[in-house]
Amino acid sequence: MAGLIAVLYGICAYMAFLGTVSYAIGFVGNLGVPKSIDSGVSGSVVESLVIDTVLLGIFALQHSVMARAGFKRWWTRLVPPAIERSTYVLFASLSLALLFWQWRPITEPVWAVSKPISAAILSGIFWFAWGMLLVSTFLISHFELFGLTQVFARLFRRELPAPKFHTPLLYRLVRHPIYLSFLLAFWATPVMTAGHLLFAMATTGYILIAIQLEERDLVRLFGDQYRRYRSQVAMLLPLPGRKVAGRQDI
What we know:
2 strands; mainly alpha
């Protein structure tokens, strides 16, 4: 029964993730959602800046703290290890939903691309980025990344395999294609407003910090193997002429 409850919990967390990520596409792209990054009720510029910055800070803090190995060791004293990842996914989805709900648009334009070809290119990059994000998760272990593998292993009383280090496809070009996907999706827009710029800049800063924290954990886990990989493969921008060392399943 405990295993079945864990599976149902994991499925609910995964569905929450699918819903919030799907909404995120419309939110960032101003596409077919009730409230987007440039729509909804707005206040004064100062009020909007404060609220939006706090929302972005909550999102960044939740992601950074709950993803750390030290927090996981403490957290799994309170929750079963099998649902630790699903709980992380659920909290991440809730923090993102809070941002969508309370976001205050700041619609002053920063740039607007008027040429149809240029606008189409930016829109193409936007959609390419979301596609690359999905592919990148499956290149490692999509269902483990979002907690389903763990809860089904608990149900069937199977041990999870130890993390393996390898470099599937995109991970031979850059160390963090998932983060690169987010950066492209957040910056590739024909119309950049002040609010969208705040969102893009804040998430870029968070990603750069998160990479340092994540790689510190990976070095602790894989040691020299990851150090060699880091020295041979670019972080975010593909650089030609480099050999690849390896990448873990996470």
